[in-house]
Amino acid sequence: MRCPVVAPRVAAQAGSPAGPVPVERLTARRAALLARVGHGVVVVRSAESRPDDAHAQDSDFRQDDDFFYLRGLEESSALLVGVAAGGGGASGGSWRLYLPERMPAREQWTGARLGPGAEAMALTGIGDVRSVQRLAGDAAGLLGSGGDSTALRVGGAAPRGCTGREGPCTDALLGPVLAAARGRIGSLDPDMAQLRLVKDVDEIARLRRAGAITTAALSEALAAAEPGEHEYELEAVIEAAFRRGGAERVGFPTIVGSGPNSTVLHYDRNRRLMQAGDLVVMDVGAEFGYYTADVTRTIPVSGEYTPRQRAIYDLVLGAQQAAIDSVRPGSSLMQLENIARRYIETHSGSSCGPESCERYFIHGLSHWLGMDVHDVGPYTTPLRPGMVLTVEPGVYLAGEALGVRIEDDVLVTATGHEVLTSDAPRAAAEVEKEMRSGRSRRAGVK
Ligand code: GLY
Ligand code: MN
Ligand code: MN
User: Fold this and answer.
1) Which pTM was predicted?
2) Which CATH architecture has domain 198-445?
3) Ligand 1 pocket: which of 214, 282, 287, 373 to mutate (most atoms <8 Å of CB)?
4) Which of 252, 270, 341, 398 suits 246 as a labelling partner, its CA being 20 to 30 A distant?
């Protein structure tokens, strides 16, 4: 293959549909981190690129969440180093970015990279960008003084799968820094989790877009679903809509489970031929600018729920609504879960035999949502404005091949909550209506 020499300027997030994270957000996040840790040095590793041979593409490179959160760059084999000056506060420290040297011959294959030096400083606004080769020499100066019990906190990507083809592996680069810390080493993960638990305005905007792309895709899937299609055909409708909407990737493997597969929580093979009368659980999430949605709708592939399916569906929907109604500052995930379970207990009637359907609600109600679909942060933290969680009750009757899950993404606000994913039809009658109109549209164009 002949390749042109490429020399484009590399800007952070160039060409990304989400655009770059605003510099003032990144600065505020880094200041908040140093204020939180108070003293010592923090190191955040980027993800490593993993091409599988000398010239292959790494088609699934994704930056480490913590690195992206603090720096907004998609460079691999890089290290971000922060030095807390002590005492915290907005001016309480400084930051350096260590990047691998550029490799022009390699860039002809995989595109331009940001290298250390003046160009990187100009393009990123970062005042101190050094070659990774300098880290060993800098280690003693960074960590040599002070008797802190934890002088160094290490976070970011777990060191695995590095081939060394895009630059030295961060694991090897960190060796001298770890040695200079002389055992006074801790994990940065708990501090990052606390920061990421409360989303800022840019994060909320990204989650909102991820939700909008996902609900639009689900609406398309409702309109397209028919007996006689394979689960993967619905998957294709959904993921095509994600990419058209500007999603970079899925936030987790798309789940389209029909009939018996509707009762398998994380079924993602999506191979079955859907048959008349099946329920289909679609649990999907577009990732937009590193933030993912996580939405589930359960639909009757024939277009109408049977009375039995409808009874279970309405039970799950009622439980979800009861929990959503209670999302507000001060409440907790445990309280929401109890509310949903109590609703199912008290509204099951004889739907699940002598016992309530609650025993078929076999997973948790909620998880945090953000850069990761099961986002970081302790589950015991009381809700605060800016937190984002899922609310997703389900009832799974394997003996009847009947599984129902309904899931939405909810932002905690100062006065209560906002459902970020309310645009996808949710009430049974709305789902059926959307399916009917999809069929009429298809019949009109046939
Ligand atoms: N989509 C995975 C989950 O809901 O946890
Ligand atoms: Mn979920
Ligand atoms: Mn889900």
Assistant:
1) 0.94
2) Alpha-Beta Complex (3.90)
3) 373
4) 270
